[in-house]
Amino acid sequence: MKKKNIMFCTLLATSTVFAQSGTELFTNYCSSCHATVVGTNESGGEVTNIYEAPYIKDVVSKLKTETKTKEEFLAFVKDYIENPDKRKSLYGKRAIKDFGLMPSLKGVMSDDDSTKLANYLYSDYDNATPKIKEKKSVSDESSQKSEQFIKSEALFTRYCSSCHTTAVGVNESGGEYTHIYEAPYIKYIINKLKSETKTKKEFISFVKDYIENPDKRKSLYSKKAIKDFGLMPSLKGVMNDSESTGLADYLYHKYD
Question: N or C: which terminal CB in the chain sees fewer CB atoms within 10 Å?
């Protein structure tokens, strides 16, 4: 599995371990490769999505056919994410050649976390995956909101999650176990920005401006962090105004 190089970085920081749900664990450690579309293939007259690793729904379905019980399914997932091996792969050598072998998550998740993730994949993934409802009319507000949420979540996964939610290591200094990210953890950024802005409008305005025009004078964090880890690259031209507004709105409500 290739590590995505798309960077949405403000600063690199560590954050304390916190309880995460199966959905959050999947989003943080799996979705960028197994659920984020990076292109399309139109060969043979059929349009198919391209991912950086086998699509998670197909992986789950295939593993369920290969295991006899839920316990076997959970055991396989827990073992594989810590000790990936081409001999254990559900796919052939061609897939390993195309995608590479996924990196180990050993030490990144606790045993409880890996169990929650495996349970989520077995029992809840299909039910928890947002479905875009067919819009019956232009005035169908709930459907429009659902579709916008999904689009904005996809933008976050594509441009932000690899730096702001995916742990790249752990730090045990000082006797405290913390995760290391390639940029400040998104939940802390959101909470800090909410405390610095008075209204949702100001929050959205800041996010839209900063992702296009990052500047150390605007940073929510210290000069030392800017010096150590650099300034995030501009996303100007990557998203249109509607998309950047949707992303900012999604971030504002992400942890409601």
Answer: C
3-state helix, strand, coil in the chain (%, to 5): 50, 5, 40
Q: Is residue 5 part of a domain?
A: no
CA nearest neighbour of 253 among 180, 182, 203, 197: 203
Name the pLDDT band for 225 (thresholds 50, 70, 90): low
Q: Domain range spanning residue 162?
A: 14-253
Q: What are 110-133's pLDDT values in tens digits?
A: 899 999 998 999 987 655 444 333
**Could you tell me the CA-to-CA distances from 61 to 19, 66, 120, 123 in Å, in that order?**
27, 9, 13, 11
Phi, psi of 39 (to 5 degrees): 175, 180
Helix (H) or strand (E) run with residue 50 in it: strand 48-50
Residue 9 lies inside a defined structural domain of this protein: no
Between 237 and 171, residue with greater pLDDT = 237
Residue 246 lies in a domain: yes
Q: Cα dihedral sign for 29, 36, 250, 234?
A: positive
Return the closest-CA partner of residue 176 out of 22, 18, 20.
18
Given a contact cutoff of 8 angstroms between Cβ atoms, the answer to whether 186 and 162 are in contact is: no
Half-sphere exposure of 147 (CA within 13 A, CB side): 10
Beta bridge partners of 39: 50
